[in-house]
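Here is the promised in-class demo. Please do not try to memorize the tokens; focus on the logic of going from shape to residues.
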């Protein structure tokens, strides 16, 4: 039976050391009770208390870490069925499948492309996370060679795939320091691969012919004291795999079935030969509820929309997405270019910056930190007002970049113009358009003035 926050608090050290990242032990206990924190975050909990608390404090879906260091991929740890209930926590990994039957030149190109392709959005790096290396020949040396190629390019978050226990054992030995995901334990190999996972401290995937068989495999592994498990339901059709993922999430969260409380791995690359369909299939499992999504290609046409979708789904709905405060140079501005200012709500930033880019007018764009609020909301909350904007403008360094002192504020915040005039002193405050669509003609008129 789950323990209450008070029950958990009684077994904590009560030091309020804040090393867990929470202000007090009581707050930490409440997070543990709600499945929002991990017991390992407390460095001072006793072994006796740990044993009692481990089951009660574990999130319904166990978090599993693949890889090591900053590039490690953490999946699972989810506590809700729907994002709007609270938030989704650990984003799914987007992966690339490489087989040992591919041409060596093609392998090198794919790995190089995987490493290089990334996008920046709202200060976040959008990229793929994990490489699945598959044995198709039964030759361990070929799989090990793939591992070495990946390591040589500093690609160290790996899934090792083979139907052969011997091949996996050799490949895991060659890469155990990277803690790869071992794929996959079946009814025939579960005991041998479970031992390999334990001996090398690596996570392991299970693959069954049905959810009943998956459950049996998980029970066998947990009886062996294997903790880090990833589930492949074994289905390779969109509908059935989609249904299976929903069943697993509901079983873990609603029915409190610990057997199914693990993240999943899904292979859209094995569901279709059509690259467009593959990307569409993959997009289905970003919100519902893939832990690792393996693709046959990682290119701009599929990575960017999937990574953008993932970013939008795996952000806290209670915290607006925000752009970093600062000066943004758009269209190579110089000392004569106009200076615009707006809030750091990401949608506002992308609309304004997009319109400025379209205008072709070199412009300085100042982004004021408003805690992710839009202009009107920030104004109402006292975060986009004269006595907040003026100090930012003076400290931003924009005065050293232009030979004029004119600043354009959003038309929606026109009421602050008088106060901002007083706060900025020798700056001339101009009122810009209320709508983003009117920024382009406004800037063109400035340029022609």
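The designed amino acids, position by position:
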């Amino acid at each position: 039976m789950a323990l209450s926050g008070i029950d958990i608090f009684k077994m904590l050290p009560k030091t309020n050391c804040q090393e867990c990242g929470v202000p007090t032990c009581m707050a930490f206990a409440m997070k543990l009770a709600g499945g929002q924190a991990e017991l390992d975050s407390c460095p001072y909990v006793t072994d006796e208390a740990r044993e009692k608390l481990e089951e009660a404090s574990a999130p319904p879906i166990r978090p599993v870490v693949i890889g090591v260091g900053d590039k490690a991929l953490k999946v699972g740890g989810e506590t809700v069925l729907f994002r709007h209930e609270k938030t989704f926590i650990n984003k799914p990994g987007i992966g690339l499948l490489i087989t040992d039957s591919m041409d060596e030149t093609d392998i090198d190109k794919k790995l190089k492309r995987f490493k290089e392709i990334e996008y920046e959005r709202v200060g976040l790096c959008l990229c793929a996370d994990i490489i699945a290396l598959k044995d198709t020949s039964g030759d361990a040396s070929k799989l090990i060679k793939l591992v070495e190629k990946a390591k040589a390019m500093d690609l160290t978050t790996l899934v090792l795939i083979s139907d052969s226990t011997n091949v996996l054992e050799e490949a895991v030995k060659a890469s155990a320091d990277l803690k790869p995901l071992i794929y996959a334990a079946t009814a025939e190999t579960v005991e041998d691969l479970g031992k390999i996972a334990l001996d090398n401290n690596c996570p392991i995937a299970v693959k069954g012919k049905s959810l009943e068989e998956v459950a049996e495999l998980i029970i066998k592994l947990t009886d062996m004291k294997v903790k880090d498990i990833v589930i492949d339901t074994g289905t390779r059709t969109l509908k059935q795999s989609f249904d299976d993922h929903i069943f697993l999430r509901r079983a873990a969260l609603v029915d409190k079935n610990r057997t199914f409380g693990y993240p999943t791995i899904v292979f859209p690359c094995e569901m279709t030969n059509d690259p467009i369909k593959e990307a569409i299939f993959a997009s289905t499992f970003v919100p519902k509820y893939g832990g690792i999504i393996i693709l046959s290609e990682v290119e701009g046409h599929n990575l960017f929309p999937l990574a953008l979708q993932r970013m939008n789904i795996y952000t806290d709905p209670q915290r607006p997405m925000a752009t970093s405060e600062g000066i943004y140079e758009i269209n190579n501005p110089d000392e004569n270019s106009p200076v615009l200012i707006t809030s750091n709500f990401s949608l506002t930033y992308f609309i304004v910056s997009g319109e400025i880019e379209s205008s072709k007018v070199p412009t300085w764009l100042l982004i004021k930190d408003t805690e992710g609020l839009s202009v009107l909301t920030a104004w109402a909350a006292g975060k986009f007002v004269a006595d907040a904007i003026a100090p930012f403008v003076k400290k931003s360094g924009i005065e050293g970049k232009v030979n004029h002192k004119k600043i354009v504020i959003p038309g929606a915040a026109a009421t602050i113009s008088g106060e901002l005039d007083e706060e900025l002193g020798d700056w001339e405050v101009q009122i810009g358009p209320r709508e983003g669509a009117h920024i382009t003609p406004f800037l063109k008129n400035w340029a022609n003035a």
